Amino acid sequence: METDFSRKKTGSADASASSGLYAHIYEVVRMIPRGRVATYGQIAAYVGHCSPRQVGYAMAALTDADVPWQRVINSQGRISLPENSRGAIQQRDLLENEGIVFGRTGQVDLKRFGWDGPE
Q: For residues 72, 104, 35 and 109, what is the CA-based torsion angle, rounded to 10 degrees?
């Protein structure tokens, strides 16, 4: 599955140095259940020694179709991709197909749909 994430810059971090970190990020993102979302900051906190921006870089570098990238949104409960871009439309469609509801302003209610994290 090609997304707009695949065309974003991955930052200045060396890809080989970040591959272990990215693998850990992807491992955590795979834990987010269908019908739930998590924020970049939340994933960073679970991974540890990582920033929300690094989580974003990992999502941008994603090539593995079994990582549910669409379930990672920003701390305001919004999709971070440019509004009405192909990737943002795809992410919203995927989330709505999982039962996630967006408010009038395009926000997801994190209290209702937020993931509580790994057990």
A: 70
Per-residue pLDDT 10s for the chain (119 aa) are 444 443 344 444 455 556 899 999 999 999 999 999 999 999 999 999 999 999 999 999 999 899 999 999 999 999 999 999 999 999 999 999 999 999 999 999 999 999 999 87
The CATH number of residue 102's host domain is 1.10.10.10
Listed in sequence order, the residues at least 6 apart from 88 whose beta carbon sits closer than 8 Å to its beta carbon are 4, 79, 81, 82
> What is the count of structural domains for the chain?
1
The pairs formed by 63-69 with CB atoms below 8 angstroms and a separation of 24 or more are 63/6, 64/26, 65/1, 66/30, 67/26, 67/29, 67/30, 68/29, 68/30, 68/32, 68/34, 69/3, 69/5, 69/29
